[in-house]
Every structure is written in C-alpha cells, then in structure tokens.
Amino acid sequence: MSMTQPHSPMPAGFTDRVDRADRAHPTDRPDRVVDTTDGLPLPWLQDRQLGERLLEALWSAGQPATPAQFFVWSQSRLQPLLPHRLLVCASDVPPSPRLTAQLFHLKPIGDGLQAQLESPEHGLWLHLIRRWGEGRRALRIDVAREEPSALFQPLLEAGLRSLVLHGVAGDGERPQGLFLLAGDGWDDEHLQRFELLTPALHAAWRRSRLQPRGQALPRRVGMLVTPREQQIVEGLRAGLSNEGIAIQLGISMFTVKNHVRKILRKLGANNRAQAVAIAMSRREFSEPEASGLPRGA
Asked: Which of 8, 54, 217, 220 has its CA 20 to 30 A from that of 296?
C-alpha cells in the first residue's frame, strides 16, 4: 500500500510563539515550572530544538489514520523525545469498557512476553493499572527492583529494565487509555515530557483505530524494496551494524552502506529505525529466520 510518512511543516507562527513565550518568562527565575496545561516549562522553551520537536509532535498527532501510520508517527515524532524500545497501547474499544492492547516494537521480543503484554487481564497489567490509579500520574519503574519479581521477570529477560507508564482516566477505576514505554536512561525531564505528550499520544492512537473495517488503505502492488534490500532491512531490525550485516550476507560494507542509503530514500525515512518502522507497517519484509539472515549474491 502507498503510505506517506506522517509529516507536515509546522504551522506559521509556531516558532514566533516559542520566542514570545521565551520573552514572557525571563531567565531570572530558573526554577520556574510552567503548568503544561498553559504552556511548556521555561527550560524547554529556551531549548529551541526541543521546543520545536515537542510542538511538532503535538501538532502532528492528528495525522495517523491507521495503526501502521501511528507506528511510523511514534518512531518519527515520539522516539526523539521519548527514546524507547517498546511501546504498548492499551485502550477501551467503545461500546465495550474492556481494554485491549497492541505492541509496537522494532526488534522481536519473546512470545511469552508478547502474550503477557497483549493481555490487559494479565497480572502484570492489573498490577500496573492499580499502581497508576493510585495517583494517575506518570510513573517510572525500575523493573529489577519491583515486587512481585515474577511478574517482571519476562521483561528483564528481554533486556527491558526501565518502564514509564501514563494514561488517560476513564469512568470508574479503569483508564480510558494506558501507555507503556520500555527503554533506558529515563530521567525526570523525560517523565515530564511523557506527561505532556500523553493526551496527544492517546488522541493519535484512538484516531488511528477509527478506520472502518473493510476500508483499510490498499496494499501497494509490488515490493517497495528488492529481496536484497529486504535482507538489509531485516539486519537493521535485528540491530546489526553495517559490518554485521555484511558478514551475515557475505558482501562488503560498502555494498551494505549503499543499500541502506537506497532504502532510506525509497521509504522516505530519516534514519534506520524509521526505515524499519515504515517497512514493518507496510509488511514489506518477512520475519527474520532463527538461523540468521540468508546468504545471497
């Protein structure tokens, strides 16, 4: 299917508004924290690149129209602000109040962990929902220190040692939407960004699921990338370097580098992770085989 990367220029005046906000809150109060319902915290506004990335993420949240486009949006807009290896979206599907979950990740995870994260009725989700419901604020969780440890062991085995969790309140105790990100190196500023972006994340996810059944965008005829380029993308998804892919496929690093350049151009991607996300969303390549990447000329 033909699907464009969810990107559009920021509306005129966004940068000017950042400048005006910067002038409105002079730097003689560095400890000032702006309520995110009214604006961005002052230190973020002083970092022009960060401010523009946040505004772009908020502005573009209305663009994903399918889960596949949502996945690409999360890699292109959320990833630079909230680095993560795994994103899980759990939300209700009206009229049923029952939560359903969907995973978005570039690298494969174990079947057991995947089944666990895809089931909001699992003990792990019930534990997380209860924890979040106590204060309904963004949580940062050090998996290795959590009890009961058996619930979190599959995450540790998959190398996921740090989680952040936030959501949107619903009726009663159940959230309307809950979002789990797994990664490393989360600090208080990342948690603030997560709190700010959660309403946009929730809106983007809900909108992406509104596509009526039977009305999905048609799949593109023919393959976007060649069989060799599919092998390269599979290597990228596995986290291999150019050298690692070259060794697996028995070709030179120069050849791999040229293929990566062509893949980025064909997919309209800005980086390797985004290229994998777009290729996965279009189902342009198969799952990597356990025996490794196939060799070819």
From this structure: 220
What tokens does 10 get? 């920021």
Given phi > 0 = left and psi -120 to 50 = alpha, else beta, which region is 283?
A: left
- What domains lie within the chain, and their CATH numbers? 63-208 (3.30.450.80), 227-281 (1.10.10.10)
| Both structure tokens of 263 | 């893949």
- Is residue 286 scored above 80 in pLDDT? no
The answer to whether residues 179 and 99 touch, using CB atoms and an 8 Å cutoff, is: no
Burial class (CB in 10 A: 0-12, 13-18, 19+), 100: middle
Find the range with the poorest average confidence among 13-27, 115-129, 130-144, 240-254. 13-27
Using alpha carbons only, what angle is made at residue 260 by residues 257 and 261, rounded to the nearest 5 degrees?
Answer: 90
pTM score: 0.63
Terminal C-alpha separation, the chain? 28
* Averaged confidence pLDDT in the chain: 75
Examine the pLDDT at 107 and tell me if it is beyond 60.
yes
Separation of alpha carbons 34 and 32, rounded Å: 6
| Relative orientation angle of helices 227-237 and 242-249, to the nearest 10 degrees | 130
Q: What are phi and psi of 200, to 5 degrees?
A: -70, -40
